[in-house]
Design goal:
By secondary structure, the protein is α+β, with helices and mostly antiparallel strands. The chain has a single domain, classed as Immunoglobulins (Immunoglobulin-like, Sandwich). A five-stranded antiparallel beta sheet has the order 4-3-6-7-8. It is built from two helices and eight strands; from the N terminus they run αβββββαβββ. This is Lipoprotein.
């Protein structure tokens, strides 16, 4: 092995070990997830397509690598979608980033109560829950549950 290859291998090993030390650190805090916006793309009688805008806040001193997100969304306590999104994105240290996740659902059986809730012009409660899988070499699964309100008309959350 030539000296340059050895140096590169040593550098890689040291950076990996540095990453290991940060996982065991007591000052690591869980990232926060929040549903920011629901954007309607297309709606037919049997299938609706939305884009969920999910914001991830990284309160840590190191970059957060996100592999995938298993999630469910309930509007007004009605199950709207349960899905998995493969993201492969990152959020810089002490930063936030919004991801767009395309979902398809069939709300036909829940149409009446959902339309009633949206037409009421009052905020509609939502729950976003699931599991966020992070890391590149060492994986961590974070369970989350968030709630808030969607304001009818513009589908923005409060």
């Amino acid at each position: 092995m030539n000296p340059l290859s050895r140096l590169l291998l040593l550098s890689l090993m040291l950076s990996v070990l540095g990453g290991c030390a940060s996982w065991g650190s007591d000052d690591w805090r869980e990232p926060q997830l929040r549903l920011v916006k629901v954007q309607k793309v297309k709606a037919t009688m049997h299938q609706q397509q939305f884009i969920l805008h999910v914001r991830v806040d990284n309160p840590n001193d190191s970059r957060l690598f996100i592999r995938n997100l298993d999630f469910s969304v309930r509007l007004n306590d009605i199950p709207v979608v349960e899905d998995n999104a493969s993201l492969w994105r990152s959020v810089a240290a002490h930063e936030q980033r919004t991801f767009k996740i395309e979902v398809r659902t069939n709300l036909w059986r829940h149409l009446k109560p959902l339309v009633k809730a949206i037409r009421s012009k009052r905020p509609v409660p939502y729950q976003l829950s699931g599991e966020l899988n992070t890391g590149l070499l060492w994986h961590r699964s974070l369970h989350f549950w968030r709630s808030g309100e969607i304001i009818p008309g513009d589908f923005h959350s409060e």
